[in-house]
Amino acid sequence: MKIVIISDAWEPQVNGVVRTLKQTRDHLIKMGHEVSMLTPEGYRTLPCPSYPSIRLAILPGRKVSKELSALNADAVHIATEGPLGMAARRWCLRNKVKFTTSYHTQFPEYLRLRLPLPLSWSYAWFRRFHAKAERILVPTASQQQRLESHGFKNVCVWGRGVDTHLFTPEHPQRLKLAKPILLNMGRVAVEKNIDAFLSLELPGSKVVVGDGPDIELFQKRYPDVLFTGAKFGKDLASWVAAADVFVFPSKTDTFGLVLLEAMACGVPVAAYPVTGPKDVINDGITGCLNDNLEIAINKALTLDSKACINYAQYNSWQACTEVFAQHMHSNDP
């Protein structure tokens, strides 16, 4: 099958959406599919307001239309709701081409943290964007239920995997820090609720791996926390493997790919019992969920790393990509 995936999120961005799409593309190709990506590469871009590291395509409609017409793909998947996603959606509707979408990020909740917009307004816009899709793919059952409660139709679950060859407990970073090491990895931004973790008075050391629009704010606010900046590949995996507990304070993620990556390194997770963590974490086995994050951290410190590793082994990208391929809607006559 010839598949085209349209995404406003792509390299050099470092996030779960980009990692998911790269793994999906690579495994689709291994399965024999022909895959094309339409990303901001090759388009004129501007930095996203408040997220300068994210580049958004400027007026991409004409070029997107030309590229989609030339590709003549069997299946069209729109992965994001940005300028490229909107342009691809318009082209599909104008040319009566069926398409699928995915919902990676709880943008209505993100927007509410930065702009005084009612949730109902944001959900109305996103509901309209996805309404014409044959299927809306989401990473978890609880996210499926959340969208359905807001009036979304044709919502299907497409899970996430982990690269267990990269994320392993075998080569941890040698850190001269007080134990236990409590680590968070991801985009450093207010909507990730990092304050809830960093403000806790806990023994040991706190480490934040990643970059983001609010990193300078948090560095000034928490001078005793080690902020490493962005890490990649084996270096990233070695930092995760060095932790005693992976702390995930976000309440707005649809999945949290980093949860599986931490477990693959043998690191139990502490998180709130919300969408994402409650779908991924086997409470009391691979991590702890609690409305009191300090309690979750202390309980997670007692868990067996082998249980985390064993759980992660069952979440392969190959299986996830097979589900993705099954949900693609062919436009063959």
Can you offer a commentary on this structure?
By secondary structure, the chain is an alpha/beta fold. It folds into 2 domains: 171 residues, Rossmann fold (3-Layer(aba) Sandwich); 133 residues, Glycogen Phosphorylase B (Rossmann fold). 38% of the residues lie in helices and 18% in strands. It has 14 helices and 14 strands. Strands 2-1-5-6-7-8 form a 6-stranded parallel β-sheet, with helices on both faces. Strands 11-10-9-12-13-14 form a 6-stranded parallel β-sheet, sandwiched between helices. A two-stranded antiparallel sheet has the order 3-4. Strand 1, helix 1 and strand 2 form a beta-alpha-beta unit. Helix 1 crosses helix 14. The longest helix has 15 residues. The mean pLDDT is 92.
Any key phrases for this structure?
six-stranded parallel beta sheet; Rossmann fold; single chain; 14 strands; 2 domains; globular; 333 residues; alpha/beta; 14 helices; 38% helix
Task: Report the CATH topology name of the largest domain.
Answer: Rossmann fold
Give the overall shape, derived from the CA principal axes.
globular
| Average pLDDT, all residues | 92
Residue share in β-strands: 15-25%
Q: Let me know the number of strands.
A: 14
> Portion of residues in helices?
25-40%
List the domain count as a whole number: 2
Structural class: alpha/beta
Strand order of the largest sheet: 2-1-5-6-7-8
Unreliable stretches: none
**First CA to last CA: what distance?**
13 Å
How many individual helices? Answer: 14
CATH homology group of the largest domain: Glycogen Phosphorylase B
Please summarize the sheet with the most strands: 6 strands, parallel
What's the order of the H and E elements? EHEEEHEHEHHEHEEHEHEHEHEHEHHH
Q: CATH architecture of the largest domain, please?
A: 3-Layer(aba) Sandwich
Radius of gyration using CA atoms only: 20 Å
CATH class label of the largest domain: Alpha Beta
